[in-house]
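Per your request, structure below.
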């Protein structure tokens, strides 16, 4: 019999969106919900990001790669538009910025911390 309880691992839909603030920088128009916090890395590795129309995240590097799934709206990465239902895997050290004209909600899996360039 398993000694752990599945309820210990569920994130319920009762979390509130928080402003995205990284290293004391507030990214206006972007909100975040942490879905998985890695205690060893001391950071969230799975998050939801909500971009208001016109919001952008600066050019950056993903040392460990990333995975993005567009839940709602459209996001622009390197002049390519990802629409609702699109999935993107980027390999380690992939560099890009993110912007949106319409607003969007994204599911991100980011194994390593982002480096702003």
């Amino acid at each position: 019999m398993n000694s752990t309880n599945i309820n210990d691992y569920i994130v319920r839909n009762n979390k509130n969106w928080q402003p995205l603030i990284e290293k004391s920088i507030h990214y206006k128009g972007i909100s975040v919900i942490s879905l998985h916090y890695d205690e060893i890395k001391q950071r969230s590795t799975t998050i939801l990001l909500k971009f208001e129309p016109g919001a952008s995240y600066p050019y950056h590097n993903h040392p460990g790669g990333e995975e993005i799934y567009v839940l709602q709206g459209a996001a622009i990465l390197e002049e390519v538009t990802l629409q609702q239902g699109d999935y993107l895997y980027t390999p380690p050290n992939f560099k890009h910025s993110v912007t949106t004209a319409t607003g969007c909600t994204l599911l991100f899996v980011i194994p390593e911390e982002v480096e702003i360039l």
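Strands lie at 18-22, 25-38, 43-51, 56-62, 66-77, 80-83, 87-90, 94-99, 104-109, 115-116.

Regards,
D.
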